[in-house]
Amino acid sequence: MNEYIPVISIAIIMGLLARINLLRTDYRQYPSYPQGYISHLTLGIVAASLGAVAIPALLEKDFSAMTFLALAASQFREIRNMERESLSNLEETELVSRGKAYIEDIAKAFESRNYVAMLTALITSLCTQLYLIVIDNEAKFYTLYIIGGIIGLLCITFLSNITKGKIIKDIADVKQGEINFKGPLLCVDNIVIMNIGLDDSKKILQDKAMAVIITPKDDDARATLANVGQRQAIQHNAAAQLGIRKDVDEPDFTPLARRDPENGSVGMLILTMEPDIECFIEAVNRVPVLESSKRKPLESRAGYKAAD
Amino acid sequence: MDIGIKEYIIAVVTINPEKVSSGGVPVFYAKDEEERKKVALYIAKTTLGMVHDLDNGCYIIVRH
After folding, report:
1. What SS3 string covers chain A?
2. Distance between alpha carbon A238 and the CA centroid of its chain, in Å?
3. pLDDT tens, position by position, A24-33
4. Sheet holding A210-216, edge to edge
5. Could you tell me the pLDDT band of residue A165, with boundaries at 50, 70 and 90?
6. Which residue of A lies nearest to B53 if distances are taken between CA atoms?
């Protein structure tokens, strides 16, 4: 059993590093609490250990150990449910809700991060074990650690790159829009956003609100931006980053994103604590494109033909 | 998802009685523009609703 200790230990360390690398407190402010860190790190260790022992277990002809990987997968699916549930429960307390699509995306991300930890550990242990068997049977402890470290880091870089995903900036241009009123109708450029009855609200919106026009770069982007969940995510992120200026009894100041049916561009309006248009555009630019909202009509025959 | 008109009209506030016939919604008659605005604001604040202008002398208060 002793011979496997270097392989297993380096694999667990690299798997855990992969999880820590993805455990960032970002603008979503989640998970930003010690409890969140502990539970995710512990699950990360569990995932990494499962990945790390799989290869040595196979070598020992302990094939049943492989079934633990399947068990792990179902455990991690449980994490997705856990995240989804807790975020859905918190939804009522948000002034600007995340929306179901965004929650689903965050939950999926949490699930996949554990797979990243498990895969990193699995590949690290596979490579170091292969080195031990094929190249140098008498390899020293530290040689294995160096090899495992390099393989693990490559794995982490590769996996975190492919799980990164796009942001709004990649699929659309965001420019400042102009707020104007047509009677009671509040418009951004010529996109009607909503009907505002009270003169006081109109005045505040006219003076202090900021607006942007999000113009999709192609037909795929247009279909993605049409998704209500994607727009809700943009609103939530912008509000979370710039500070929303409303309370529960002021629905007039809810940020809204509406679509121009003519060309598919989206007009969005927000009333923030920090009225800085540059920051607003930056915040919108950096919103992730949700996996569940992503559409690719251009990749179908009909969609491609219809586009020209 | 909370981004569209999907719920219901809580009240109608008007200075123009012939524009509104009674339905399932409470109607408040105001004697002038100023009272109309005040009543609409108070109802909206109390019910967490939002005031929309129909441009014909009627405000509707809608819960979104």
Report:
1. CHHHHHHHHHHHHHHHHHHHHCCCCCCCCCCCCHHHHHHHHHHHHHHHHHHHHHHHHHHCCCHHHHHHHHHHHHHHHHHHHHHHHHHHHHHHHCCCCCCHHHHHHHHHHHHHHHHHHHHHHHHHHHHHHHHHHHHCCCCCHHHHHHHHHHHHHHHHHHHHHHCCCCEHHHHEEEEECCEEEECCEEEECCEEEEECCCHHHHHHHHHHCEEEEEEECCHHHHHHHHCHHHHHHHHHHHHHHHCECCCCCCHHHCCEEEECCCCCCEEEEECECCCCHHHHHHHHHCCECCCCCCCCHHHCHHHHHHHC
2. 15
3. 655 454 556 6
4. A172-176, A210-216, A266-270, A256-259
5. confident
6. A197
Q: Which two tokens stand for residue B44?
A: 């909206």
Could you tell me the pLDDT band of residue B5, with boundaries at 50, 70 and 90?
A: very low
Taking CB atoms and an 8 Å limit, are A256 and B3 in contact across chains? yes
CA A23 to chain centre: 12
Q: What is the pTM of this model?
A: 0.85
Q: Which of A184, A200, A231 is nearest residue B55 as measured by Cβ atoms?
A: A184
CA dihedral A270, A274, A275, A276 (to 10 degrees): -110
Is any Cβ of chain A less than 8 angstroms from the Cβ of B50? yes
